[in-house]
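Whiteboard transcription, Tuesday session. T.W. wrote the structure tokens on the left side:
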């Protein structure tokens, strides 16, 4: 199995979660470098994870490390810029947080920039949580009968949580 070289931009809480996910799959990924504009946050995560290479500039990191995978957990306003940087530096896959973009035009630009050569995925991890897997088991068992509809509420906001709910509901309804 091929082992992919991955880099991470954004060393806050979500970034740490992504880093741990990469490190939990050492047969698939090698996390080679971290990037954050906050030196303290970068240093703390690098020390915690034992990652020796850290950068304050994403473009410098991409140029030096030449990764296969760009993973980032950043504010939405810089997502398009990071996708463009990743594609320009030859990454094969991009994993990013939601929302994908701040407008439909920006989302379309991300799709266009990635084209057929770069796989881009929005990280939807809710369905992997134990409580969601249990709900899936119950639905799939048929013990509660046929599911005719789903209802969900997105709190604290639809922009932050809504895509997770849509993903989970599509997964639940897939049977």
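and on the right, the sequence the group agreed on:
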């Amino acid at each position: 199995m091929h082992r992919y070289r991955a880099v991470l931009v954004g060393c806050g809480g979500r970034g740490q979660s992504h880093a741990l996910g990469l490190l939990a799959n050492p047969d698939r990924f090698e996390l080679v470098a971290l990037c954050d504009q906050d030196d303290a946050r970068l240093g703390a995560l690098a020390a915690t994870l034992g990652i020796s290479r850290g950068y304050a500039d994403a473009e410098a990191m991409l140029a030096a490390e030449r990764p296969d995978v760009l993973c980032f957990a950043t504010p939405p306003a810089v997502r398009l810029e990071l996708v463009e940087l990743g594609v320009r530096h030859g990454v094969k896959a991009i994993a990013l947080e939601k929302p994908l973009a701040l407008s439909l035009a920006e989302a379309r630009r991300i799709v266009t920039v990635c084209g057929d050569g770069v796989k881009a995925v929005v990280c939807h991890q809710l369905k992997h949580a134990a409580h969601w897997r249990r709900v899936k088991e119950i639905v799939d068992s048929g013990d509660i009968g046929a599911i005719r509809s789903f209802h969900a509420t997105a709190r604290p906001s639809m922009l932050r949580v809504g895509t997770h709910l849509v993903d989970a509901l599509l997964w639940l309804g897939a049977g």
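Someone added at the bottom: The first helix runs from residue 13 to 23.
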